[in-house]
Amino acid sequence: MQVPGSKSLTNRWLMLGALAEGQSLVRGALASDDTSSLAGAVTNCGVHATWTAPDELTIVGCAGRPRGGSRVNLGDGGTPTRFMAAFAALADRPIVIDGSPRMRERPVAEGIAMLAALGAPIRWMESVGRLPVAVGGLRLVGSTLAVGATSSSQFVSAVMLIAPWLERGLELVFTEPPTSASYLELSISVLGRAGVPLRIERTVSGGLSRVTIEPMPLRGIDITVEPDASSAIYPLAAAALVPGTRVTVPGLPRTTAQPDRGAIDALVAMGARERTIDGSTSIEHGGVLHGIAIDASLWPDGALAIAAVAAAASGTTTITGLRTLRLKESDRIGAMATELRALGCTVSASGDALVIDPSTRHERPVTLHAHSDHRVAMSLATLGLLRPGISIDDPTCVAKSWPGFWESLAQLEGV
């Protein structure tokens, strides 16, 4: 099954291309609500970002100096909103960052405080700590930034991505283990691949202690984005669920730096079989799946698919490390608990965990609610291949990350 390009990688390469001097080409890019909204936002600020093919972005960057004076709305996109705020910090005049009603509820204050600590002018337009916010208007020099525990890793990644255009670069000192460290590692990987000089210091246990990013304004980039592990988990989960099924995702390597690779490992721990076919990841049904206890703190988004698989497994599954899911497009912990209960499962939900006992499940027809959340919808949809009578109430929400999801899932019907 062909899976679209990585949303996380597309957004990161889009940021670097938008700030680079000259033309960049991002091949294999994901065209979705999130990536298109970020491309449109940077285009409003002096960049030319256009889809020159269904999966190809051509970007003419602003050489590290966005044009300010505009107002941009990133909708529901958490990553695009936070990346855009950091991008605006380099602008010659303030840029007003806004989002959907849901995005206005999500936390941005601690990330905006990072930009303020770097010297960026900040003005809250309506309510302190909530969108909309005006950012930018001074040339940033760069400095050392102490980072503690955060509600999201996205702002930390955002300041990493603008660091090559800071006169003195950036030194990040982690005073506590960082939230969603795997996504910070992904940003480090992207910067390294772009040729930015980096120094990484780690704790005894291998966690991030200090990251130093040297100033090095980039010229045009030509890069190919690998398939999205976060999207691949849904057809791979379907293969684990449905007897006689094997799904291969061409171009998704076993060694990918994408964090949701961990969710694929969880499928194997539950009893699915993994193969590598022509260098690509493949999962096949391995018999009865069994419940597991697993820490998903490095791949919380992928945990939703594992929660759905747990609803069809034998035995109880406990998934911990889900703290950041409360503040996504929906309260993903609460959403999954509610919908799995609608399937008859016994579910316990806490601040950072789901415990799923599928022994009470039924097979009566049921309409499940997506909660306007693409990952909730796609996770629950995999169960519709295993049992009849499942409907999803808001199918269009998948456009946020995989517009062609339903057509792709249809390939697995009747296998």
Walkthrough of the structure:
The protein has 415 residues and is of the alpha/beta class. The protein folds into two domains: 207 residues, UDP-n-acetylglucosamine1-carboxyvinyl-transferase, Chain (Alpha-beta prism), CATH 3.65.10.10; 147 residues, UDP-n-acetylglucosamine1-carboxyvinyl-transferase, Chain. 31% of the residues lie in helices and 21% in strands. The chain contains 13 helices and 21 strands. A hairpin with a 4-residue loop joins strand 18 and strand 19. Helix 1 packs parallel to helix 3, helix 2 packs parallel to helix 3 and helix 3 packs parallel to helix 6. The relative contact order is 0.11.
Concise synopsis of the structure shown:
With 415 residues, the chain is of the alpha/beta class. The protein contains 13 helices and 21 strands.
